[in-house]
Amino acid sequence: MPRPQTDAGLWLSKTLLAPARGDVCRLEVCHGACCAGGIWVDVVAVQAILAAEPTIAPRLPADRRDPDQWFSGESFEHSDFPSGIANATTVLPRPDGSQRPGCTFLEADNTCALEHASAALGLGWPGLKPFDCATFPLLRSEGTVGRDRSVHHVEGQADCKPPASGAGPAFHQVFRREVELAIGRQGAERLERWQARRDARRRD
Fold first, then answer.
1. I want to staple 146 with a disulfide (CB 3.0 to 4.6 A). Which of 14, 15, 55, 185 is the partner?
2. Residues 16, 54 within the same domain
3. Could you give the CA distance from residue 182 to residue 83 in angstroms, rounded to a whole number?
4. Is residue 76 domain-shared with residue 157, that is, in the same domain?
5. pLDDT tens digits, one per residue of 98-113
6. What gap in Å lies between CA 62 and CA 151, rounded to an integer?
7. Strands, DSSP E only, in 100-149?
8. Which of the pair, 39 or 156, is modelled with greater confidence?
9. Per-chain mean pLDDT for the chain
10. With DSSP H G I counted as helix, E B as strand and the rest as coil, what are the percentages for the chain, rounded to 5?
11. Domain that holds residue 151
């Protein structure tokens, strides 16, 4: 059965049809495992984050409030980013005292300062939160939308990462909000139809 595409021409990966192991984000289980390596942020989004410094900085530890230190200086050119260029967030020991690595915007409870600042500014979802963070554990890359498999080897306890051991809700059903952000409601409905056709074929 051929893979469908979104209206924007993105291929949908069959990994989205596989059962999900866990529920949506449970920080008490994974402790922000997806934030271990920081994130690449489109340079347009970087400017929006820097412009919101008065709201973001007070949420961070005193030694992390300098916006000049929020991004590492690394840049990455790739068509996955709307502007074609992204900057990397700085990675530091987490403020919870564990010495585990984490994105500079992580708070001590493993939540995201950018997400909290967005709520305070009334920006809606995802606001200042980087797109790939907001859609995780989905990844829209190289013309395909699928399950992001880049974290499990770093933090094995990330509940959203490993495959399910048995039957259960499909990955795209558990992470419906992330799917709709990545490919829109019509894309999510297309996935539902693909799932239904696949299930019907298996019953025949």
1. 15
2. no
3. 17
4. no
5. 878 999 999 999 899 9
6. 29
7. 101-103, 138-141, 144-147
8. 39
9. 87
10. 40, 20, 45
11. 1-31+138-204
Rg (alpha carbons) of the chain, rounded to whole number: 18
Asked which of 129, 149, 179 is the last residue of a domain, the reply is 129
**Counting beta carbons within 10 angstroms of the beta carbon of residue 93, is it exposed (0 to 12), middle (13 to 18) or buried (19 or more)?**
exposed
Query: 151 with 34: CB under 8 angstroms?
Result: yes
pLDDT at 153: 46
Q: 21 and 51 in one domain?
A: no
69 with 97, same domain? Answer: yes
The answer on 121 and 94 residing in a single domain is: yes
Identity of the residue numbered 114: L
13: amino acid identity, one letter: S
For 29, 135, 157, the CA distances from 138, given in Å and listed in that order, are 19, 5, 17
Q: The whole model's pTM is what?
A: 0.87
Domain boundary among 83, 110, 129: 129
Identity of residue 130: P
Which is more confident, 110 or 21?
110
Burial 46-79 (b: 16+ CB within 10 A, else e): beebeebeebbbebbeeebeebeebbeeeeeeee
Is the same domain home to 44 and 125?
Answer: yes
Total number of domains in the chain: 2
